[in-house]
Amino acid sequence: MIDPTGGWAASATDGAPRAARPDRLDGLTVGLLANTKRNAEAFLEAVGELLAGEHATAGVVRRTKASIVDPVPAATLAEMVELCDVVVIGVGDCGSCSASAVADGIAFEAAGVPAAVICSDAFRVTAEAMAGLRDSPGYEFALTPHPVAPLDADGVRERAVAVLPRLVGLLTGASAVPERAVAG
């Protein structure tokens, strides 16, 4: 069994910093950080297309982590911080990858880049636990119904369409957009 929190100890701070949010996404470069879970890249690709079409984002930087359980590599984090204005991370569709995705989101926030993490609703507790361990209790993320892996292309796109308002809210600071798991 893999402990997705292994090696990371909470510090004595009052919470990890959140990056300043842009008012809008138009003209911004979006980073898409996928894990190796089935459909993660397709889901994020659909999100990137929707952001470009509906919010006039300027470009996309795509990266895929080599492992669902490891934190984003330092070099990838640094590169995306340099190239991206905001980052979308996902898809947390198991316990380990949900915890890892939240940890990655918090790392981007600490580096000054707003992040929106997507997790499936079955692993909400795991994602919340990682946020607490990373000194970010209450860290907000987007939920989609579990599972994502077996979806066909149409199902992946439907999920991306449904979660898009929440992602935009998380990235722009308008996170008053109600959290909801979308219909599966």
Low-confidence stretches: 1-14, 180-184
First-to-last CA distance: 29 Å
Tell me roughly what share of residues is in helical segments.
Answer: 25-40%
Indicate the mean pLDDT: 89
By DSSP, the count of extended strands is 5
- SS-based structural class? alpha/beta
Gyration radius (Cα, Å) is: 15 Å
Task: Give the percentage of residues in beta strands.
Answer: 15-25%
Structure overview:
With 184 residues, the protein is an alpha/beta fold. 39% of the residues lie in helices and 15% in strands. It has helices at 40-55, 74-83, 95-110, 124-133, 153-172; strands spanning 29-34, 59-64, 86-92, 115-120, 142-144. Strands 2-1-3-4-5 form a 5-stranded parallel β-sheet, with helices on both faces. Helix 1 (40-55) crosses helix 5 (153-172) and helix 3 crosses helix 4 (124-133). It starts with 28 loop residues before the first strand and ends in a 12-residue tail after the last helix. Residues 1-14 and 180-184 have low confidence and may be disordered.
Question: Which features characterize this protein?
Answer:
disordered N terminus; 39% helix; 184 residues; alpha/beta; 15% strand; disordered C terminus
In brief:
This protein is of the alpha/beta class and 184 residues long.
